[in-house]
Amino acid sequence: MSRLLRNAAWWARDYLYALRWQVNAALSRTDPREFATGNLTPVLILPGVYETWRFMIPLITAMHDRGHPVHVLPVLRRNRRPVDEAAASVVEYIAHNDLRGCVLLAHSKGGLVGKRAMVVDAAQDRIASMLAVATPFGGSRYGRVMVLPSLRIFSPRSATIVALSEEHEVNGRIVSVYGRFDPHIPEGSELPGAAKNVRLDSGGHFRVLADPRVIAELIALSEGDGSPAGQATP
Q1: pTM above 0.85?
Q2: Distance from CA of residue 111 to its chain's centroid?
Q3: Which of 67, 122, 198, 210 is packed most tightly, with the most Cβ within 10 A?
């Protein structure tokens, strides 16, 4: 199969996955408080733009079943707020609930929010690490042509991306996982100075959430010594 056909197939499967879980999220009536119990490391969920926390229910359920309290922030809604505002809500939630040593699980824009929250949280040191999946740390060229402000912030030249790119001190506590091909982030999601950058063998922006490596890395961060699993994927 040619590279073009392979990427097209990944793209199609990616949107089918996104459609499936957006529909499931819309129909779900699960109470998020059901996941807030557990004795292991707390995990905080940060979905991508236009996603609710319910979009990540498979990972939420998997971690809760292992004994982790999993926290979501309904106040984020579909994560359309500016990154700084959303990050402030994250830090406030963590402090209000007295969470310590928590691990952030973020998808796409959620990783930008999470990184900013880690910077703000530096003095309190309540956030231990973050697993970011398909996060545009360096922006996306497509952001330049977007009309909506909630999408235009992904431009590599946006104030949000530039400011976050200049914050290096928390990168060593972030594991960035991303596909070989991402239709939304053609530049990829490699984060300079990250604890580890993991490029998956699969492709997509949404469907990569279901890759077994994602849950493996999350378990390593939340149940190990805080170190990522295995070696970086070239």
Answers
A1: yes
A2: 4
A3: 198
